[in-house]
Amino acid sequence: MATVDSAVSASAVDASGAGVAARPLRADARRNRDAILAAAHATFEVEGVLASLDGIAVKAGVGNATLYRNFPTRDDLLAAVIQDSIVAMLVEGDELSRTLSPAEALSEWCVRVAWQLRIWHDLPGCVVSALADEASPMNTACVPLQARTSMMLDAARAAGSVTSDVTADEIYELITTLSWGLDRFAVDAPAARRRVLLATAGLFAR
């Protein structure tokens, strides 16, 4: 049986399209793919994740057919572009678990994930939509975040720090909902932290 850690690692690899069995791309195909990813990242930063895919192809200097051959859907492209951010969040999660109490680590994890998921306009909405679609590449890309949330909740529960009936799915759904609100209201980091802490205070045992 796979451990949670191995599931996290496997999901991260699968979402990036770099699985062990994947056939190496030709040099020109790799350049095209990298150009598309760079153009998408730059475009999402400015226009949000619902920006025109055709515009991304133009910015990357490739034809539409090349973009769709590499990334058949918007979710395919978004899952690939967000992969580095997800890996960075998991690294932060490791550090939180090492340096904070289980309750503090879970609380801070909620704050940081809610903040990071709103890095590009409309990203939280795409994450929420993918929760209900197991076939979506974005669903697969976010599995490591859900798994890490579950691990942190288990640690906090073992320490007697959280209410007994809360589930990891409920916490993750709450995080994505809060992230959507942070995106819509365009709050800054300190205001975002205050809102997430207020919204998640009820998770913790008094």
**Overall average residue pLDDT:** 88
How many separate helices? 11
Report the principal-axis shape.
Answer: elongated
- Indicate the proportion of strand residues: under 5%
What's the oligomerization state?
Answer: single chain
Q: Please report the total strand number as a whole number.
A: 0
Q: Give the domain tally.
A: 2
Reported by name, the CATH topology of the largest domain is Tetracycline Repressor, domain 2
* SSE order: HHHHHHHHHHH
- Give the biggest sheet: none
Q: According to CATH, what is the class of the largest domain?
A: Mainly Alpha
Q: What helical percentage do the residues reach?
A: over 70%
Structural class: mainly alpha
* Straight-line N-to-C gap: 36 Å
pLDDT < 50 runs, ≥5 residues: 1-21
Kindly report the name of the CATH homologous superfamily of the largest domain: Tetracycline Repressor, domain 2
**The CATH architecture of the largest domain:** Orthogonal Bundle
Cα-based radius of gyration, to the nearest Å: 18 Å
Protein name: TetR/AcrR family transcriptional regulator
Pfam families: TetR_C_43 (PF21597), TetR_N (PF00440)
Keywords: DNA-binding, Transcription, Transcription regulation
